[in-house]
Amino acid sequence: MPGQAPALSEADLACYNSARMRCFIGAADGARKESPLVRLIVIVPVVLAVLAFAACSSTDKGGGKVSVTLREWAITTDVSSLPHGDIEFNIKNEGPDLKHEMKIIRTDVAPDKLPTKDDGSVNEDAAGIEVLKRVQGIETGDNDSRTFTLEAGKYVLVCNLVTDQNGQQTSHYAKGLRAAFTVTP
């Protein structure tokens, strides 16, 4: 019938030239014609494999891990910068006596120059101060691990608690619980 493809026998379908894996279908007039279906069957998996390989071999992993130690009266880190992305903060409070917290502040201000309130704590509402993340209530001897996605920029890690010690208000930030941290592009 006109307009219908002729029925194909097994003999009509032949693959040759194994180096190029080209498949042909025998046409009614005896000419060989490359099958679009076979072309798709070969090309699509090859393209998907190339894309998967490219995605898996990316060198821009970003992020990483940082160990943070809180103690009277300092915050220390094992690294001072990591590339942007998911950053795992492994936090330990070595005390020896007080509960601490860790806040991640994005700012261009130096760690010891942050604007403060009358009690010596950081004024978290001041211009140029953006508190992004916080881990509260880390008791002496406790560990906490949190992962945060951070963009490239300058950060300050602080404990912004104010505690009463022998009838006096003590700002943990003012006593030195602060550290610079940079996230690179």
Run of helices and strands: EEEHEEEEEEEEEEHE
Number of helices: 2
Mean pLDDT: 83
Amino-to-carboxy terminus distance? 66 Å
| Main sheet summary | 5 strands, mixed
Any idea what the shape is?
A: elongated
Count of DSSP strands = 14
Major sheet: order of its strands?
A: 6-14-11-8-9
Low-confidence stretches: 8-24
Percent of residues in helices comes to: 10-25%
Keywords:
185 residues, four-stranded mixed beta sheet, mainly beta, five-stranded mixed beta sheet
Description of the structure:
It is built from two helices and 14 strands, in the order βββαββββββββββαβ. With 185 residues, the protein is mostly beta strands. A five-stranded mixed beta sheet has the order 6-14-11-8-9, with no helix packed on it. A four-stranded mixed beta sheet has the order 5-4-7-10, with no helix packed on it. Mean pLDDT is 83; it is low at 8-24.
Topology:
Elements (H helix, E strand, L loop, with lengths): L12 E4 L5 E5 L5 E3 L1 H21 L7 E8 L2 E4 L3 E3 L1 E9 L6 E7 L23 E9 L4 E8 L2 E6 L3 E4 L2 E4 H4 L2 E7 L1
Parallel strand pairs: 4-7, 6-14
Antiparallel strand pairs: 1-2, 2-3, 4-5, 7-10, 8-9, 8-11, 11-14, 12-13
Question: Briefly, what is this?
Answer:
With 185 residues, the chain is mainly beta. 14% of the residues lie in helices and 44% in strands.
